[in-house]
Amino acid sequence: MADDGASGGFAGRLGARVEASDDGSARITFEVTDEHLNPAGTLHGGVLATLVDTAMGTAVRSATGEDDVPATSQLTVTYLRPGTTGPLVVTGRLRTRGEHLTVCEAEVEQGGEAIGHAVATFALLHR
């Protein structure tokens, strides 16, 4: 992860920024622009799925060793209301950690309202 807070990989190319990551939690900020909208003029569901997956994966990495690599094995996203252009915040947190599987949860807020919720299971791969 870069020192400037930019997320790496695909989420970083979208513009996601890791604002905080510690002890099984992570906070990501994102500026929704017109290029992130679907034909209906609302935030594309795939962008939101990428953001929650990234926040939860970052939360897992903050609570595991450098040799543990979280790999998403299941992801469920609930879209609560349409997202629009402007800033949003994604908060991910580790809920339950087993030896090989970890369960996480994420909330997405925009303009003070919840627009999405996600639950994911991550397999912990060992390098």
From TrEMBL:
Record keyword Hydrolase present: yes
Signal peptide: none
Enzyme class: hydrolase
Keywords (A to Z) from UniProt: Hydrolase
EC number: 3.1.2.-
Domain annotation Thioesterase: ranges: 41-113
Domain of life: Bacteria
Gene Ontology MF, one: hydrolase activity
Family the entry assigns: Belongs to the thioesterase PaaI family.
This protein's name: PaaI family thioesterase
Species in which this protein is naturally found: Blastococcus goldschmidtiae
